[in-house]
C-alpha cells in the first residue's frame, strides 16, 4: 500500500478489467470491485454532505469517517488484507450513543426530508446500506473479507440516520427543526389492514 498514483489515465482498464492491490486483475463487474465502488460512492456522498453548513462536532466526525472509509476501500482492494480496525467500529458506537442521547424517541417512521443536510445524510444512509449489502454478497460468494467492514457499514448507516435527525434540529438552513413524520392515509383513516399473506 506504499505506492501512490502517478498516472491516472493508464488505459489498462480499456479491456473491461481493473487491478487489485495485490497485482491481480479482475473484471470491472467483479463482486469485490462492486463493493469498492459502493464504498467510494458513500465517501463521495459524505463529501457532498461536508459541503453543507454543519455543527462542528458533526463535521469533525464525518471527516474522520471519510478517512476510515478510505481504509475500508484499501482493505477491499487487497484480498486477505486487514486495514480497518475494530476500534473504528467502536468509535461509531460511541458517536451513536452520544448523538442518540440528545434526541427524543421516535413517534412514527420518518421521511428522508427536512433540511438539505439532513436529506443528504439520508442519502449517505442508503448508500451505506447498499455498500453493506455488496460486502455481504461478496463474502457469501467466497471473497476473503473480514467481519469488520460489514460491521462498520452497518453502524455507519445507523449513524447517518441519527445524524439526519440531529441536522434537522440544528436547522442551519432554516428549513428544518424537527423530524418529518410519515403520514399514511390508511393510518389516518383508521383503516389499517394487514398485507401479510
Automatic annotation (TrEMBL):
Keywords: ATP-binding, Cobalamin biosynthesis, Nucleotide-binding, Transferase. It catalyses: 2 cob(II)alamin + AH2 + 2 ATP = 2 adenosylcob(III)alamin + 2 triphosphate + A + 2 H(+). Signal peptide: none annotated. Gene3D superfamilies: Cobalamin adenosyltransferase-like. Residues 1-26 are annotated as: Disordered. GO terms for molecular function: corrinoid adenosyltransferase activity. The keyword Disulfide bond does not apply. Its EC number is 2.5.1.-. Residues 8-166 form the Cobalamin adenosyltransferase-like domain. SUPFAM superfamilies: Cobalamin adenosyltransferase-like. It is an enzyme of class 2 (transferase). NCBIfam families: PduO_Nterm. Belongs to the Cob(I)alamin adenosyltransferase family. This is Cobalamin adenosyltransferase. It comes from Roseateles rivi.
Amino acid at each position: 500500500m506504499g505506492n501512490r498514483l502517478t498516472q491516472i489515465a493508464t488505459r489498462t482498464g480499456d479491456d473491461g478489467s481493473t487491478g487489485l492491490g495485490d497485482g491481480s486483475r479482475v473484471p470491472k463487474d467483479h463482486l469485490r470491485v462492486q463493493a469498492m465502488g459502493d464504498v467510494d460512492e458513500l465517501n463521495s456522498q459524505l463529501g457532498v454532505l461536508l459541503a453543507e453548513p454543519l455543527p462542528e462536532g458533526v463535521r469533525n466526525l464525518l471527516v474522520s469517517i471519510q478517512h476510515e472509509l478510505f481504509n475500508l476501500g484499501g482493505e477491499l482492494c487487497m484480498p486477505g488484507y486487514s486495514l480497518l480496525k475494530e476500534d473504528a467500529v467502536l468509535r461509531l458506537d460511541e458517536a451513536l450513543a452520544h448523538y442518540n442521547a440528545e434526541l427524543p424517541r421516535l413517534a412514527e417512521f420518518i421521511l428522508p426530508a427536512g433540511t438539505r443536510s439532513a436529506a443528504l445524510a439520508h442519502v449517505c444512509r442508503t448508500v451505506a446500506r447498499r455498500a453493506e449489502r455488496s460486502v455481504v454478497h461478496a463474502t457469501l460468494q467466497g471473497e476473503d473479507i473480514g467481519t469488520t467492514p460489514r460491521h462498520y457499514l452497518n453502524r455507519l448507516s445507523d449513524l447517518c440516520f441519527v445524524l439526519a435527525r440531529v441536522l434537522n434540529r440544528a436547522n442551519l438552513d432554516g428549513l428544518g427543526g424537527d423530524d418529518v413524520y410519515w403520514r399514511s392515509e390508511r393510518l389516518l383513516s383508521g383503516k389499517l389492514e394487514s398485507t401479510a399473506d
